Automatic annotation (TrEMBL):
GO terms for cellular component: cytoplasm; desmosome; plasma membrane. The gene is Perp_1. Signal peptide: none annotated. It comes from the Eukaryota. The keyword Transmembrane applies. Its main location: other. The chain crosses the membrane at residues 12-32, 77-100, 107-131, 151-172. Keywords: Apoptosis, Cell adhesion, Cell junction, Cell membrane, Cytoplasm, Membrane, Transmembrane, Transmembrane helix. It is found in: Cell junction, Desmosome; Cell membrane; Cytoplasm. GO terms for biological process: apoptotic process; cell-cell adhesion. Belongs to the TMEM47 family. It is a multi-pass membrane protein. This is p53 apoptosis effector related to PMP-22.
Amino acid sequence: MVKYGLDYTRCRWILPLLLGIGVIFGIIALAGRGWLESQTLPYVHQASLWESCTRPEQGGPWTCESLMGYAWGRAAAATYLVGFILLVICFALAIIAFAIDTLRFNFIRGIGGLLFVAAVFSIMGLVIYPVKFSSEIEMTGINMFSWAYGFGWTTAIMEICLGFFFCCLPNYEDQILGNVKPTYFYSSP
């Protein structure tokens, strides 16, 4: 953004836009039923962050069991949900920070720090879930952690990367605001 001469007024909404995409991915992870799925036919197991569903191998109706009955299920859901709420707060703060004409760079660094905290909570939930799920719930057939679980990891990785961007952006305050004279590497013949 700084090195290639992109104007700050044109690019100021890139980071809040990326945070918005992270929020959308977090919603998909929270609502998705594809945290764990059967990999091969017959599809007999499907789980989300909130419940685990199985059915007989011959087909038939799914029977679901809530994971909130397990302490680890509540812990995984709570930590991932806290990370998601912090991400939404960072998104709202980024909208406010970039909407103000005079950008407060220390405020932006605080958003970056809060994103790192959100990433820690999200990763805790994403680690608790597969470890305890695979050790405490009986699984039949070949299972895989699937697309909604992947969206959860994508959200956590975006929180880490955007945290670095928000923390490093104040280092280039003068370049962003146009307070530095450009350096030309042209020499006349």
